[in-house]
Design goal:
The chain is mostly beta strands. It contains 2 helices and 44 strands. A hairpin with a 6-residue loop joins strand 7 (about 85) and strand 8 (about 95).
């Protein structure tokens, strides 16, 4: 179409009658470069338009027509042929594929068959889509509290808007340590005196424009170097008292908070231990020369800081072993004038303390049990039967404790010999006589009846049914072969007729008879006792 024809159409529009009305929506129209765009109108579809002209504003030439309708003929300016289409019914303009040159201000003028004119203007922005969103940091590594970190986010596209996140939380400037700056195709975050937690993120940068398509950067993490700090050494319980047993094993542990992880090395008496690095130091079969001071040193190759732990110090001591309690090789007689000494010692190790128990309990405070030689000797004087039992000695030093035991045997008795039983029974009653005594070793027992030996050799004499002939004097004799001591006891038994011991069934004559019988038995018992005593003084029955 030639210029003369466009000028004629513009002239007709300029002389059209009626009041002009805005026919385009308000606001800028955005389109992605390379895509088609449609300028919509608000024209009344019931009207018939005789002329429609779309133009683009130019700073040099003012309005430059690009497509028009005159009657039924559509005219397209060169450069828009095949790229611009006009809807004759509603005046809409479709254009594409768009290029950067299509960016600008567009206007339309429409005249209907009643010479009523509608006009409008609208801006078109042709935008490049967002792409290539990248985060870079300066510097590449940072030191905690000593570094200022700048994170730069760049992207391709038009009219870009940027936003930052730290994890799931928006990253915003605070006007103090953190500030954000933005450009057309970049955004930067500046963090002063950065700390170790601020950039663990992940940090994200997002870019968008009016095309309403958001592109995110790859997650970004930055190491902020710090430490070492909180450097400490764990001391095992075996060394807590300042002493370690010779030949024992011990492991020292060292830890530190550091990024990157600190290199840990070990020192003995201020000198580095060759090849001893890492979080643990294992000391095996500890010798006497391995005592002294130990500490751990932590070094961060990035911060160039080195921190030492406080030293621990211990001495190596021989553990107690081969503990024994020595005493008499055989049992002892109670009442020995010299008493008995028990000695507690060890084959190896230095003993610092001795502790004694008797039968699992504290030593008796009887004046006959005393300690000597710093507690290593137990003196029992004079020796008594109460001293028999198990004596336990505990030997202690700073690294261990051991025990040894000794059983002391004391020979005594027979003592406290008595005969227990019913002294008066009725004929055919059951009867048990018991010879009670205290003796170690157990004494040999013999029974006598009216000074005549019986065959029983146990402590208990049993009668299934007593008879009148069982009335008389019983004697229990005991002999201890170790102490070579004798003891005896007598017992008078009276056997009565049936019912004689029932208080309600006795007559006066029966009672008199009982009294006479008891007196006779007593006299007989006294005589027998005197006879036995005289015989014991002449010879022992064993």
């Amino acid at each position: 179409m030639d210029l003369l024809r466009f000028e004629t159409i513009l002239l007709l529009l300029s002389v059209g009658g009626g009041l002009a009305q805005d026919v385009l929506p308000h606001g800028t129209l955005y389109v992605e470069q390379g895509q088609n765009v449609t300028f919509k109108t608000t024209a009344d579809l019931e009207k018939s338009f005789i002329t429609i002209v779309w133009s683009k504003h130019s700073d040099q030439d003012g309005l430059e027509p690009l497509i028009s309708l005159a009657g039924t003929v559509v005219n397209v300016v060169e450069g828009y042929v095949g790229r611009a289409w006009l809807n004759r019914t509603n005046g809409r303009l479709k254009m594409g594929p768009t290029t950067a040159a299509d960016d600008g201000e567009y206007s339309v003028s429409m005249v209907d068959d009643k010479a009523f004119t509608q006009t409008g203007e609208r801006e078109l922005r042709v935008l490049v889509a967002v792409s290539s969103v990248l985060i870079a940091s300066s510097p590449l590594e940072a030191l905690e509290t000593n570094s200022t970190v700048v994170l730069n986010c760049s992207a391709l596209g038009s009219l870009l808007t940027f936003s930052w996140t730290n994890g799931t939380t928006p990253l915003l400037g605070d006007g103090k340590r953190t500030s954000i700056s933005n450009g057309e195709q970049w955004s930067s975050v500046t963090i002063r005196e950065v700390n170790r937690w601020e950039l663990r993120g992940p940090i994200g940068c997002s870019a968008t424009n009016k095309l309403e398509k958001t592109i995110n950067s790859a997650p970004f993490n930055m190491s902020v170097h710090y430490g070492p700090e909180a450097v400490k050494m764990a001391v095992p319980a075996v060394a807590a008292g300042g002493f370690v047993a010779r030949g024992s094993n011990m492991t020292l542990s060292c830890s530190a908070a550091s990024g990157p992880p600190a290199a840990l090395s070990w020192f003995h008496n201020g000198k580095a231990l060759p090849g001893k690095t890492g979080p643990t130091l294992v000391l095996s079969d500890i010798g006497l020369t391995q005592g002294g001071k130990y500490h751990c040193s932590a070094h961060n190759a990035k911060t160039l800081r080195t921190v030492d732990t406080p030293s621990i110090s211990f001495s190596v001591m021989e553990a107690i072993s081969g503990a024994t309690v020595t005493g008499p090789a055989a049992g002892q007689l109670a009442g020995v004038a010299g008493g008995v000494n028990l000695t507690c010692g060890a084959a190896a190790g230095e003993v610092a303390q001795w502790a004694w128990l008797k039968d699992g309990a504290a030593l008796p405070k009887d004046g006959r049990t005393t300690l000597a030689a710093n507690g290593s000797m137990l003196r029992l004087l004079p020796l008594a039967k109460e001293h028999r039992g198990v004596y336990t000695c505990t030997l202690k030093n700073a690294v261990n404790s051991v025990k040894a035991a000794y059983t002391l045997v004391v020979f005594y008795g027979p003592d406290s010999l008595t005969i227990r039983g019913e002294s008066a029974v009725e004929v055919n009653d059951e009867l048990t006589l018991t010879c009670s005594l205290d003796s170690d070793p157990p004494a040999a027992i013999k029974w006598r009846f009216n000074n005549t030996a019986r065959t029983e050799t146990t402590k208990v004499l049993t009668f299934a049914k007593v008879a009148y002939r069982d009335t008389g004097l019983y004697t229990c004799q005991a002999y201890n072969a170790k102490t070579q001591r004798n003891a005896s006891s007598t017992f008078m038994l009276s056997v009565k007729e049936e019912g004689a011991l029932d208080p309600e069934g006795l007559t006066g004559g029966a009672i008199a008879g009982i009294v006479i019988g008891v007196l006779a038995a007593v006299l007989l018992a006294v005589g027998a006792f005197i006879y036995c005593k005289r015989k014991q003084t002449i010879e022992s029955p064993y």
